[in-house]
């Protein structure tokens, strides 16, 4: 009894998402199943060959609160789909944290459409129009029309509809280039009526009308849109449409239907440029990224877009990868290799303008200085004309933004462009079909290899543990690793462990990653360049992120830290993510590289506010959010109430959402308690520790539990808060008791009891007696346990505190059980059961139900015992308590053994054992003994 305290072939299968979800096998449509199964299949098809997390599947399939058995239901759906596909169809692979559908993307219409649209970029108008028409024909109706109203439909349908419209606009643009304006007028008129505020469609209709001689109609269309935008949205048409209207008014010759052809002028010759700088020595790793670049090169014959942006934080090795790979494939480009350092993040020089870069590249292509046009548009036209039909590799290093790069892109798909930037350059994706390849830090294995190649070969092998720790301290950042290797090479007698010792202190880490005789070779300097390019508000936000004690953070936490609103914080974080100063490892949750965090903590404040005040705001946010979330898990049986604090509480409205919030924030909460204690904010440290109790009771992370409550106890003692000292000692006792450290648990409970006696608070004293009784019972000091249980029960009955009456009843029942008073024990447990149901404390209710099952089985009532344990199992699943689920399976196994069904008993016990082992429970030994006895 428990006291309180290579892609699959998918032969013949075709999948349609651009309309009702359909699966075809060799041209015959198959019946997939009910709507939820279809929705699950759609989720997997939308991200083929990628792991779709289970949590995302649950969120997608259930708009409201998902059932407790959601994971089991999804497992059943996956099983049905596997049977549906059989052995010759796509393969659904279980891979943490979810499932992966292995299938050829070309068999999915949505992905085939995206591929066709990407391939169309940069092609001649006729071929572009043909490919885009082929893509548009894949839409057969409203996207996922048969699962309309679902969360998946709301998430996916608008994006795919926008993709269709973008492809349609591009196809119309190609047809306009081909002089098909007369045929387009009717189609465009219908489209503009359907999408009256879509400016590009209106502009295309204006241009078609103008070229067909309908000038008045072209101008009228502009005025119709301007009027609608003004009255409905309070805005004017955008600059591109306004510029088109102005050209219409003055009959600009550029609007006529002809395509300018820049003829080579005098002084142009056709040299083969070879401008790539030398590749860096000691390049390691990046197999996945190199494979991606190689695959991109292979698509050249298919006409796909050949623009790739290598992006990542400062020092992550973007230029090194770009140069190394470019040299490796240079022979694939017989017409030459062009290179431009765009100086986007150069502290000593202004970024290179597109005009300056074009001048340099035109000269490399053989254009005489006096033949280079003055206007940027003319230079771009000449540049693209010279590269038409030529196979040239263009490497644009260190780009500032998309606008700097766009004029430098060749006009045909024969050439390939590689861009490196500290920003994502999403504008290139939207406007030119570029592919973004983010560079992460190196794995430990590759980092150690880089240390060896750039430093002293063999030194890492002599100290493998120190080398691994050095790689971790450098955060896998190639620049930091090269500097560390250089320091080892400069002093061959120095051991790796010596440098590790120097880098262990975070306050000196960045200084240790400098090269003394080279001001340009410094991790800090690399970060400085990115930091100084930020707008002031983003720069100050980045600095303040260094104050966050945990590893990840949300917009709500940053809003509290920076004293702003969550929407503004989200925009700032997105901007910092685009600059690769923060990462977004999962949607709406951000993090920082450890070296960037250290750098942020060194930066001086831009305002007069102290960092302690900002930290206090962050802690207030955690206090408010944790207090709000804990009340969904179990009743809050203390005087703490922070519900009125904090303006930006995250949305938690159910038990499952509360558990999700705690699961996601748990490492941050542990770190926040420690940070509060170290900053002297003791009045916030121990309450924050206490607010985790309800979560700890459900999840039971023993080591963290003891760490958090130890910090809390120190803070409670520091401020001499008697309530804090009682609660912290009691919480430490619960953690020790649950992890099997009974003597330590009793010592903490006794300390809590002594403090409660000193306060004279009878209710608090009774709580400590309930705790004492549980520890004494486990230590087989039954009479002492009974005395404390009865004393606590008497006090709680007199106070009318029904919740704590239940705890005292449970512990009294334990003593009665060992004394053979089974009927009395069951009677007290049933009363406790009713009280916990009334309080909606599911975690403790599951415990009491298991205790009821145990006593019932001892009474010989197997049916009742199994019923109690089954109910306990269901309640434990609802509240997320793995330990209570294990206890229920243990009891059900005991009942099966008494019925003589040893196979069922062993299955139940093995389930219990796996949970207890995962949770580090002392009951592991008890279960193993049962299994051993069963043979």
Automatic annotation (TrEMBL):
Coiled-coil region(s): 812-842
Q: Which SMART domains does the entry mention?
A: BTAD, TPR, Trans_reg_C
Alphabetized UniProt keyword annotations: Coiled coil, DNA-binding, Transcription, Transcription regulation
Q: Where is this region: Disordered?
A: 255-274
- All residue ranges annotated as the OmpR/PhoB-type domain in the record: 2-103
One MF term in the entry's GO annotations = DNA binding
Q: Write out the transmembrane intervals.
A: none
Annotated DNA-binding residue span(s): 2-103
Tell me the PANTHER family matching this sequence.
TRANSCRIPTIONAL REGULATOR REDD, TRANSCRIPTIONAL REGULATOR REDD-RELATED
* Full protein name: DNA-binding transcriptional activator of the SARP family
The species this protein belongs to is: Saccharopolyspora flava
């Amino acid at each position: 009894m428990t006291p309180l305290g290579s892609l699959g072939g998918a032969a013949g299968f075709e999948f349609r998402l651009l309309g009702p979800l359909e699966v075809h096998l060799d041209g015959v449509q198959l019946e997939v199943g009910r709507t939820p199964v279809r929705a699950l299949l759609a989720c997997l098809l939308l991200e083929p060959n990628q792991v779709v997390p289970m949590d995302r599947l649950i969120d997608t399939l259930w708009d409201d609160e998902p059932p407790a058995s959601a994971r089991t239901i999804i497992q059943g759906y996956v099983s049905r789909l596997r049977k549906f596909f059989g052995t010759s169809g796509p393969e659904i692979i279980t891979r943490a944290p979810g499932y992966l559908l292995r299938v050829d993307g070309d068999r999915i219409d949505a992905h085939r459409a995206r591929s066709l649209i990407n391939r169309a970029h940069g092609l001649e108008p006729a071929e572009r129009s043909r490919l885009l028409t082929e893509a548009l024909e894949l839409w057969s109706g409203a996207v996922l029309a048969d699962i309309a109203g679902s969360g998946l439909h709301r998430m996916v349908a608008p994006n795919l509809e926008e993709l269709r419209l973008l492809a349609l606009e591009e196809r119309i643009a190609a047809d306009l280039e081909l002089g098909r304006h007369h045929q387009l007028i009717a189609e465009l008129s219908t489209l503009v009526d359907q999408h009256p505020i879509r400016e590009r469609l209106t502009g295309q209709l204006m241009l078609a009308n103008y070229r067909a001689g309908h000038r008045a109609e072209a101008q009228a269309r502009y005025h119709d849109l301007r009027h609608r935008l003004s009255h409905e949205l309070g805005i004017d048409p955008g600059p591109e449409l306004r510029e088109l209207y102005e050209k219409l008014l003055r009959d600009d010759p550029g609007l006529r239907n002809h395509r300018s052809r820049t003829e080579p002028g005098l002084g142009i010759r056709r040299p083969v440029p070879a401008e790539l700088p030398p590749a860096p020595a000691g390049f390691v790793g990046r197999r996945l990224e190199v494979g991606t670049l190689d695959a991109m090169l292979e698509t050249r014959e298919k006409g796909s877009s050949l623009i790739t942006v290598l992006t990542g934080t400062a020092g992550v090795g973007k230029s090194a990868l770009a140069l190394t790979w470019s040299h490796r494939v240079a022979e694939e480009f017989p017409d030459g290799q062009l290179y431009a350092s765009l100086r986007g993040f150069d502290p000593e020089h202004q970024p290179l303008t597109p005009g300056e870069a074009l001048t340099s590249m035109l000269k490399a292509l053989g254009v005489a200085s006096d033949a280079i046009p003055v206007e940027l548009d003319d230079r771009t036209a000449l540049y693209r004309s010279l590269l038409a039909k030529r196979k040239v590799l263009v490497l644009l290093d260190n780009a500032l933004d998309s606008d700097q790069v766009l004029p430098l892109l060749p006009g045909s798909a024969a050439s390939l462009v590689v861009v490196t930037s500290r920003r994502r350059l999403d504008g290139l994706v939207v406007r030119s079909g570029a592919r973004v390849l983010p560079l992460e830090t190196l794995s430990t294995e590759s980092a150690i290899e880089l240390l060896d190649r750039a430093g002293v070969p063999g030194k890492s092998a002599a100290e493998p543990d120190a080398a691994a720790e050095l790689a971790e301290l450098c955060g896998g950042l190639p620049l930091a690793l090269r500097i560390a290797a250089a320091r080892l090479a400069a002093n061959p007698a120095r051991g790796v462990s010596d440098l590790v010792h120097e880098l262990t202190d975070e306050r000196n880490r960045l200084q240790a990653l400098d090269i003394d005789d080279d001001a340009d070779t410094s991790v800090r300097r690399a970060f400085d360049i990115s930091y100084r390019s930020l707008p002031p508000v983003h720069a100050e936000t980045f600095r303040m992120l260094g104050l966050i004690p945990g590893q990840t953070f949300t917009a709500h936490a940053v809003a509290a830290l920076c004293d702003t609103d969550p929407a503004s914080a989200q925009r700032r974080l997105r901007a910092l993510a685009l600059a690769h100063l923060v990462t977004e490892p999962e949607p709406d949750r951000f993090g920082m590289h450890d070296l960037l965090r250290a750098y942020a903590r060194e930066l001086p404040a831009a305002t007069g506010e102290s960092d302690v005040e900002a930290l206090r705001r962050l802690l207030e946010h955690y206090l408010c959010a944790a207090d709000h979330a804990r009340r969904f898990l179990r009743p809050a049986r203390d005087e703490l109430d922070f519900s009125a604090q904090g303006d930006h509480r995250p949305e938690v409205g159910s038990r499952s959402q509360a558990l999700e919030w705690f699961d996601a924030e748990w490492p941050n909460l542990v770190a926040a308690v420690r940070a509060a204690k170290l900053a002297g904010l003791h009045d916030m440290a121990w309450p924050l520790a206490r607010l985790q109790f309800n979560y700890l009771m459900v999840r039971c992370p023993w080591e963290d539990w003891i760490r958090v409550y130890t910090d809390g106890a120190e803070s409670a003692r520091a401020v001499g808060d008697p309530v804090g000292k009682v609660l912290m000692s009691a919480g430490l006792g619960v953690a020790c008791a649950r992890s099997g450290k009974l003597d330590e648990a009793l010592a903490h409970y006794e300390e809590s009891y002594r403090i409660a006696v000193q306060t004279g608070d009878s209710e608090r004293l009774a709580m400590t007696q309930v705790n004492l009784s549980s520890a004494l019972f486990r230590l087989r000091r039954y009479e002492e346990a009974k005395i404390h249980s009865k004393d606590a029960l008497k006090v709680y009955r007199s106070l009318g505190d029904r919740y704590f009456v239940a705890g005292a009843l449970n512990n009294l029942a334990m003593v009665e059980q060992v004394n053979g008073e089974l009927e009395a024990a069951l009677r007290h447990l049933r009363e406790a059961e009713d009280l916990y149901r009334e309080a909606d404390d599911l975690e403790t209710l599951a415990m009491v139900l298991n205790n009821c099952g145990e006593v019932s089985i001892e009474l010989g009532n197997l049916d009742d015992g199994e019923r109690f344990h089954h109910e306990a199992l269901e309640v434990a699943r609802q509240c997320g308590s793995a330990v209570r689920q294990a206890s229920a399976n243990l009891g059900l196994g005991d009942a099966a053994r008494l019925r003589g069904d040893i196979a069922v008993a062993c299955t139940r016990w093995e389930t219990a054992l796996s949970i207890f082992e995962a949770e580090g429970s002392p009951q592991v030994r008890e279960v193993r003994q049962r299994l051993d006895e069963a043979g």
